[in-house]
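Good morning C.,

I know you're traveling, so I'll keep this short. The sequence:
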Amino acid sequence: MSPRLLRRLLNLWPPFLFSGIRVRALSDDWRHARVELRLTWYNRNYVRAQFGGSLFSMTDPFWMILVMQSLGPRYHVWDQAGSIHFVTPGRENVFAEFHLEQAVVDELHAVAANGEKHLRWFDVNVTTADGTLVARVRKQLYVRLKPEFRPATRPPSDPPASPEPP
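The tokens, ready to paste straight into the viewer:
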């Protein structure tokens, strides 16, 4: 699937569509995404700020998608954990920018090459248009080579034979 088609589908996906979440950009090389959460009457909380669940939702799939597409089909990439730290109330539209550097992709290739699982944290800030920090979101990804691409494991060699009694 192309990044352009995925962006369009995500913008029509009910959890995003009905929360005011819009994917504004998804780069052709799968290394950048920009997401917006518009403040509307249906995603405000009791104190008229952005609902925390919507703030987390707007960031939820993007690290996994960017890493999965950048590593290629030989790897399992799953969300393992996530957390959000609310810094200031979001009382206007907010944005999240995801940038996946080539050095990180190279690191993941290297640490997963032996077939073992690797857990890595990724961070993204949610900000207003003028750069005011609203929340910090952390996602932990599980990365591992799929079984058919893992290095072959060799059974332990037989123990040395005991010397024959004289």
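Safe travels,
E.
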